[in-house]
Each structure stands twice: as C-alpha cells, then as structure tokens.
Amino acid sequence: MGYTDAPEGWWQEFVSALPARTAKLAVVRGDGSPHVAPVWVDLDGDDIVFLTSADTIKGKAILRDPRVSLCLDDERPPFSFVTITGTATTSADPDELLRWATTIGGRYMGEERAEAVGRRNAVPPEMVVRVRPTKVVAKLDVAD
C-alpha cells in the first residue's frame, strides 16, 4: 500500500475520526460507466466496512466486480483527504449485519440511536461490505 504526505497510521485515524466523515464510494456500473455514492463507514483493522443493499447500483456493482475506491476528505482549510482502492467482500450473515449496522449507526447518529439504527438497517437485502485496501493515498494539509 502507498502512503503519501502523511505519517504512518494517519489515514486510519482520519477515517475513524469523530464526527464521522461520509465516504464517497466509486464503483463501475454494468455498462462500464462510473457511479459514486456516499456511504457511512467504519474501520476493522485496516479494512473499511459499510452496509449497502444488494439491490442498489453500488450493491449490484460490488457483487459483479469487487474492485472499489473510496474517498474521505476534510473540506476545511488546510484540506486533507484519503483515497482507498481495494477489493470488496460481502456478507449477509444476520449477526454480522446487526453488529456493523449498530456500530456504524452509532458513529454517525450517536450512541443513543445506535441500536435503533442498527435494527432498522440490519435486514435483507442489506449486506456488509468489507474493503481490503490495496492502495492508500493520504494527503495531509494540502493547502499548506
């Protein structure tokens, strides 16, 4: 994996920082055209984890071709970002769905709403998507 312009471990801190940043997920549609969509994420080691429905454009694309890219950024000066390229795997295991839906829901909606968000989102055709990074580009304080 590649790290640029940022200390070792910085990208993981950036991705897992609170308040949580929304990632932009890039996939390739069946006709070869690009598709970008926002996703709520969390880290599990170096893996990026999020949920999506198997019936969405992004879900269908991941099931067809597991190569994905994600971008998270800080839009405030001096601006920083992380782009992650990797390979996705999916799971529809009910226990894993509930665990990650609750964890991710808590990151974005607050711990007091985590359980309700988790139970609402941990239903078929939702699936857990785990992205194993193959390349990471991290740029810290771009405008400095």
| CATH fold annotation | Pnp Oxidase, Chain A
Q: Give start-end ranges of low-pLDDT stretches.
A: none
- The total tally of domains equals 1
Q: Quickly name the level 1 CATH class.
A: Mainly Beta
The largest sheet has its strands arranged as: 2-1-5-6-7-4-3
Q: Just name the CATH architecture.
A: Roll
Q: State the share of residues found in helices, binned by percent.
A: 25-40%
Helix-strand string: HEEEEHEEHHE
User: Which band does the percent of strand residues land in?
Assistant: 35-45%
For CATH, the homologous superfamily is named as Electron Transport, Fmn-binding Protein, Chain A
Q: What's the alpha carbon Rg, rounded to whole Å?
A: 15 Å
Can you count the helices? 4
Number of strands: 7
Largest sheet: 7 strands, antiparallel
Name the average pLDDT. Answer: 95
What is the terminal separation in angstroms? 25 Å
Net shape: globular
